Amino acid sequence: MILFLNRDVEKHSGFFVHVVYITSSNGWYSFALITLTKLYHSDANTNVNGNCNNRHTTNKKRQQKNTNVNIDVKVKDKILKPINEVFNAIINPEKLSNFFISRASGPVKEGETITWYFDDVGRQLPVIVKTVKDNELIIFDWAASGIKAQVDIVFTAIDSISTSITITEKSFQFDKEGLSKALQQTQGWTDFICSMKAFLYCGINLRNGKTKG
């Protein structure tokens, strides 16, 4: 149940960053709408009539600045299961295949490169596992969006029967393609957490029924 919306506004690299969180009855729900608004200012000289010189140069500078801004995708949620169960659901392919993948070449293990298979949509992805800390952190590289990105999954025990999970995928370029990919991955990780909950709470695999295309 949605209780209220909370908006944060932060100045970052010449942009206003608006982050709208949707709050639910059990903590922060796993969705964030991120928008960036350009802070326009003139780098050009102005004459006494207020006319702006070197406008073309200024626009070019603005375009160059845009290429230096990256977007990170972040979702956070509370799962009503002990931290070891949540952590194991991701590193153990027998568990992961019940809500996310079809199968895997091996478990999530630090220093290994494994393959995740999504047979229902005809895809497979190499996953380069960089860091694994039991019940704390998983870091890996992959290219699910079509570009290489790093995924950080952070686990925090709230109490003995509930866990906070935060997933960050970074970074995406601040342009039309990058924004599209960031929104795509936000949706994907939100679906990931919802599907994990369905499996951990009820033993339901929400990927069943999905088909290629």
In short:
With 213 residues, the protein is an alpha+beta fold. The protein has helices spanning 55-66, 83-91, 93-96, 176-202; strands spanning 2-12, 15-24, 27-38, 70-79, 103-104, 113-118, 123-133, 137-142, 149-159, 162-173.
Question: Can you put this structure into words, describing what you see?
Answer:
- This protein has 213 residues and is α+β, with helices and mostly antiparallel strands.
- It has helices spanning 55-66, 83-91, 93-96, 176-202, and strands spanning 2-12, 15-24, 27-38, 70-79, 103-104, 113-118, 123-133, 137-142, 149-159, 162-173.
- A 7-stranded antiparallel β-sheet has the order 4-10-9-8-7-6-5. A 3-stranded antiparallel β-sheet has the order 1-2-3.
- The longest helix has 27 residues, at 176-202.
- The relative contact order is 0.16.
Ordered list of secondary-structure elements with their pairings:
Blueprint: E1 2-12, E2 15-24, E3 27-38, H1 55-66, E4 70-79, H2 83-91, H3 93-96, E5 103-104, E6 113-118, E7 123-133, E8 137-142, E9 149-159, E10 162-173, H4 176-202
Antiparallel strand pairs: 1-2, 2-3, 4-10, 5-6, 6-7, 7-8, 8-9, 9-10
